[in-house]
Design goal:
This protein is 45% helix and 16% strand. It is of the alpha/beta class. The protein has one domain (4-213): 3-Layer(aba) Sandwich (Rossmann fold). A 7-stranded parallel beta sheet has the order 3-2-1-4-5-6-7, with helices on both faces.
Length: 224
């Protein structure tokens, strides 16, 4: 089992995390709609057939992900795509970009669940993705472990690992290695990131490229 210690700790901290969600709501970092989704509850029914799940943290990662989403939609006209984000701003830019996409009616969005075993299990058991992809440095031990347990193949897109991040994982090097080795396919953002990811435990890095080079410029209207 991946990350047994983190599994237990996050379960114990779940009540505190829920309180923190309310605090974030009060500060505009969550929305009323995001709270149940953070608990792994679905925003809409799961469509039949194949479902690809893609997760991006915030604005930059979401913008970088959009060409991948369009490619998947073009590749298979029967495929549905679920995109989760980790921030209100990421969710906003997602809804801003989707109307311009071909096949956007096959795209569903919601906020990612907290990295708590019960909540991640609820999310995955409902959506039952056939494949998943995390963007850049979104390494969530419990969610990755739950995907592994359900035999959901995972990809890491635009994989990023700084020297500082790698050093911060030093005390949990085994956990990092187990997470990174779980990915069936890794795309590193740069040769330097690829080297750090490999040092951390990634066993299959098949492409070195930056998705942000293919993404259109991000323009958001400043709110007053």
């Amino acid at each position: 089992m991946l990350g047994a210690g983190w599994h237990g700790l996050s379960t114990l901290l779940a009540p505190i995390l829920r309180v923190n969600l309310r605090r974030r709501l009060a500060h505009g970092k969550e929305t009323p709609a995001s709270l149940p989704q953070r608990r792994g509850l679905a925003s809409r029914p799961r469509p039949p057939g194949l479902l690809a799940w893609l997760h991006a943290a915030s604005v930059g990662e979401t913008v970088a992900l959009m060409p991948v989403v369009q490619h998947l939609l073009d590749l298979d006209p029967t495929l549905h795509v679920l995109i989760t984000t980790g921030t209100v701003t990421g969710n906003a830019i997602l809804h801003d970009r989707l109307p311009a996409m071909t096949g956007q009616d096959r795209v569903m969005t919601q906020f990612a669940p907290l990295d708590v075993p019960m909540l991640g299990a609820r999310f995955l058991d409902y959506w039952r993705p056939d494949v998943g992809a995390l963007v850049e440095s979104e390494l969530w031990p419990n969610l990755i472990a739950a995907c592994h347990a359900r035999h959901v193949p995972l990809a890491l897109l635009n994989g990023r690992m700084s020297d500082r991040s790698l050093a911060s994982w030093r005390r949990a090097a085994c956990l990092l290695a187990r997470m990174l080795s779980t990915f069936a396919w890794v795309m590193a953002r740069s040769a330097e990131d690829a080297a750090r990811l490999q040092h951390g435990g990634a066993t299959r890095i098949d492409l070195i490229a930056d998705l942000k080079d293919a993404a259109p410029p991000c323009r958001m209207t400043r709110q007053r």
